[in-house]
Design brief:
Aminopeptidase, binds zinc ion, 21 strands, single chain, twelve-stranded mixed beta sheet, four-stranded antiparallel beta sheet
C-alpha cells in the first residue's frame, strides 16, 4: 500500500532516487537504507532542493563525523524507477537544513519502523509493569536485551528496594442477583485479593457501630458499598469511621466496594506496606455507574448478590527495583550526554500501553534507528527507562542522587510520557529556543499534518515525570509537547490503557522526530544552556502548582512530598482532604483544580481523628502566562503531586 509522502520525504527520496528506485516489500526487508553519504549519490535534479551535501551541512550536521555506511550497504538495489514529479518538492525550503546522515534515520523510521513491535511485545507479552512486580523485573531484562540486540551497551541498574512486592493475578466479578451481569473493576496494587470466588450480599455502608452489631449476621460475608457522591458527605468520618471499619472487620465482611469516576476504573496503590503486617482489607474499585446501579437496587430493597474473584499475591521483600540504561558512545564529546527516555513501570489495572509503553517503545526505536543508521554522534546518547515513576519518580530521583557527578555533563534529558499523541514540540527557555528552533524546526516538515514547534517558556514545565528529577539537579529536563486525536485521560491509570489505544502512525512519527532531535542535540557545538530552567522560588515551577500529596480514592493522604506546600502546611499521611479554600474535594482532579485557581494563601481542610482541621497553605504565585505543561499534562487525572 502506498503511503502518502510528505514533501520533505519526497525531497529525500528524490535525492536518493537514482539509487533507490521502488523496492518490493521483500526487497525492503533485505535491502539496506540509503547511504548517509549523499555526496556519493548522483547530484539531484537542479530543481530539487533535497538535503544539502557535506559542503553545507547546516545546523543538524554531525560535525566532523564521517558517514559510516559501507559501500555494499550504501547501494540498495534499484527496482522500477519511481517517477516523482519534481514540482512536488518545490517549496520545501528548510529540507536542506537536515544533515545528510539524518536522511538515513528518516529513511529507516519511515520504511522499517519497529516501534509497534516494541510496544506490542511490551504490553501483550510482558503486560503491566508495576514497580516491584515480577513483570517489572522481566520488563527490565527484556528492555536491556532489546538495546543489546540493537548493538548498544546496555545494563540494568538497581536503584532501591520496595518493602513488599506485588503480583496481580487474574480478576473477575459479576452480579449474581437480581440479574446476572459482569462487573468492571480493579483492586489497588499492594492490596489483598479474595480467597477464591467470593459471593456475598451487597450491603449499604453502616451508619454506626451499633448498626453493624445489630445486623452482624447480614454483614458477615457481605460486600459493603462505600458511600459515593452526595451520599459521602453525610457519612461519618474520622474516628467514627475507623470504629465502624473495625466493627466490619470484626464481623468478617467479604470486602468493600468503592466507585470509580463514571465508567473509568482508576488504579493506584501505596507500596509502603510492611511485610510483617500485610493489608487484609479487600477493596474493589468498581465502575462508578455500576456502583450507583447496585446502590439504587439496595436502596429499593432488592437483594443484590455479588461475586468477586481476585488473585493478588504479595512477594516477600525487600524487592529490588531497577532502571534500564543503554548508550551509543559519542565521538569527540563522548563524556557529555544527551538522555532520551521514559518510564518502564506502569500501574497494573491494564497493560500500561500509553502510560508509558508508548514512551518505552519510542525510546527503544530511537536507539535502534540511530544504531542501525550507523550514526556517530558527537555526544553520548543515553537511553533511560526508569521504574518507580508512578510512585513519585523514584527511579530517576535515585539515579540523579547516585550519579551527581554526571549532572554537569548532561546537556539535556528529554522524556516521552504523555501517551500516544505525536511529538509536536518542546518547551524551552529563550536561550534554548535560539539554539533549538533552527535545529529542530525542520522536523515539522517531515509530515505536514504533524507540525513541530519550539515554544518559549519562563521555566521548563513540570507535568509530573522523570525529567523533573534532573531539573532538580539543574539539568535541562524536557517533556515533549504532544498533540493529536488521542484522549490521554481516558487511558491514564484506567482500565483502558491497552494496546488498542496506541496510534501506530503517531508512534512511528514520534520515534522519527525524537531520533532526529536526539542526534541534532548531541551534535551541537555546545551543551544546552541551563540558566532559567527552573522558576525562581515562590513561583509555580513551569506554571504548574501542586499541593504535594498522593491520595487514595477516598482522598486520604497516602504520601506527603517533602518540601511542598502540603508538607509546609502540616498535612499528614492519613489526613482526608475535604476542602481547599471553599472548594469541596471529592476526587483527585478537584485538588488540582482548586490548587490552580486558589490565591497564594489558602486553606486546606482535612479530617484528622474525626475532626475537621484547617491548615494554612502557601502556594507559589501563578506565573503571568502559564505555559502548556508539556502539552497540557492531564492534571485532571494525575495524582496531585509528581
Ligand atoms: Zn507516565
Amino acid at each position: 500500500m502506498l503511503r502518502r509522502l510528505s514533501p520533505l520525504w519526497l525531497a529525500l527520496l528524490l535525492s536518493f532516487s537514482p539509487l533507490l528506485g521502488c523496492a518490493t516489500s521483500e526487497e525492503r526487508e533485505s535491502s539496506a537504507p540509503p547511504s548517509t553519504d549523499v555526496a556519493q549519490a548522483p547530484a539531484p535534479a537542479p530543481d530539487t532542493p533535497g538535503p544539502s551535501g557535506p559542503a553545507s551541512p547546516g545546523p543538524m550536521s554531525a560535525g566532523p563525523t564521517p558517514p559510516s555506511a559501507s559501500p555494499e550497504r550504501a547501494a540498495p538495489r534499484a527496482g522500477g524507477a519511481t517517477q516523482l514529479a519534481s514540482n512536488e518538492v518545490v517549496g520545501v525550503k528548510s529540507a536542506k537544513l537536515l544533515a545528510p546522515e539524518m536522511a538515513k534515520v528518516v529513511w529507516l523510521a519511515r520504511e522499517d519502523s519497529k516501534v509497534m513491535d516494541h510496544i506490542t511485545a511490551l504490553t501483550e507479552t510482558i503486560g503491566p509493569r508495576l514497580t516491584g512486580s515480577s513483570r517489572a523485573t522481566k520488563a527490565c531484562a527484556w528492555a536491556r536485551d532489546q538495546f543489546a540486540a540493537f548493538g548498544l551497551d546496555a545494563r540494568v541498574e538497581e536503584w532501591g528496594t520496595f518493602p513488599v512486592g506485588f503480583d496481580r493475578g487474574p480478576w473477575s466479578g459479576r452480579m449474581l442477583e437480581p440479574e446476572a451481569k459482569p462487573l468492571v473493576f480493579c483492586t489497588n496494587a499492594w492490596s489483598p485479593g479474595t480467597s477464591g470466588p467470593t459471593a456475598g450480599l451487597a450491603m449499604k455502608y453502616p451508619t454506626s457501630v451499633e448498626d453493624v452489631e445489630s445486623k452482624a449476621s447480614a454483614y458477615h460475608g457481605a460486600w459493603v458499598l462505600l458511600p459515593s457522591g452526595a451520599g459521602a458527605a453525610s457519612q461519618p468520618s474520622g474516628e467514627e469511621r475507623q470504629k465502624i471499619d473495625a466493627a466490619l472487620d470484626a464481623v468478617g465482611i467479604a470486602g468493600r466496594i468503592r466507585g470509580g469516576r463514571g465508567e473509568l476504573v482508576l488504579t493506584g496503590g501505596n507500596y509502603r506496606i510492611s511485610a510483617e503486617k500485610l493489608p487484609t482489607r479487600v477493596q474493589i474499585n468498581l465502575r462508578g455507574d455500576q456502583l450507583k446501579e447496585i446502590q439504587d437496587l439496595v436502596a429499593a430493597g432488592k437483594e443484590v448478590k455479588l461475586e468477586f474473584d481476585v488473585q493478588n499475591t504479595f512477594i516477600p521483600g525487600p524487592v529490588p527495583c531497577s532502571n534500564v540504561i543503554a548508550e551509543i558512545k559519542g565521538t569527540d564529546l563522548a563524556d557529555e550526554i544527551v538522555i532520551i527516555g521514559g518510564h518502564l513501570d506502569s500501574w497494573d489495572g491494564a497493560t500500561g500501553a500509553t502510560d508509558n509503553g508508548t514512551g518505552v517503545a519510542t525510546t527503544l526505536e530511537v536507539a535502534r534507528l540511530l544504531a542501525k543508521s550507523g550514526v556517530q554522534p558527537r555526544r553520548t546518547i543515553r537511553f533511560m527507562l526508569w521504574t518507580g515513576e508512578e510512585q513519585g519518580l523514584l527511579g530517576s530521583r535515585a539515579y540523579v542522587e547516585k550519579h551527581k557527578d554526571e549532572m554537569p555533563k548532561i546537556s539535556a534529558v528529554i522524556v516521552h510520557d504523555e501517551g500516544t499523541n505525536y511529538v509536536a514540540g518542546l518547551n524551552a527557555t529563550k536561550a534554548q529556543k535560539e539554539i533549538l528552533e533552527p535545529l529542530l524546526a525542520p522536523l515539522g516538515e517531515l509530515d505536514p499534518e504533524m507540525p513541530f514547534r519550539i515554544k518559549e517558556v519562563n521555566a521548563l514545565p513540570r507535568p509530573g515525570s522523570d525529567h523533573e528529577s534532573f531539573l532538580d539537579a539543574g539539568v535541562p529536563g524536557f517533556f515533549w509537547i504532544q498533540e493529536g486525536r488521542s484522549n490521554y485521560n481516558h487511558g491514564h491509570h484506567t482500565q483502558y490503557d491497552t494496546l488498542d489505544a496506541v496510534i501506530p502512525e503517531y508512534q512511528k512519527h514520534s520515534a522519527m522526530v525524537i531520533a532526529c532531535a536526539a542526534l541534532g542535540v548531541a551534535n551541537l557545538d555546545q551543551k544546552l544552556p541551563r540558566e532559567g530552567i527552573n522558576a525562581p522560588r515562590g513561583v509555580a515551577r513551569g506554571g504548574r502548582r501542586f499541593l504535594g500529596v498522593s491520595t487514595d480514592e477516598a482522598m486520604k493522604v497516602t504520601q506527603v512530598m517533602e518540601d511542598t506546600p502540603a508538607a509546609k502546611a502540616g498535612v499528614k499521611e492519613g489526613d482526608q482532604i475535604v476542602k481547599i479554600g471553599d472548594a469541596a474535594i471529592a476526587e483527585r482532579a478537584d485538588i488540582g483544580n482548586a490548587v490552580r485557581s486558589a490565591g497564594t494563601k489558602t486553606t486546606v481542610t482535612v479530617k484528622r481523628d474525626g475532626k475537621d482541621v484547617v491548615l494554612l497553605v502557601e502556594l507559589p504565585a501563578r506565573p503571568e502566562s502559564a505555559p502548556a505543561a508539556g502539552g497540557d499534562a492531564p492534571a485532571a487525572s494525575r495524582p496531585a503531586g509528581p
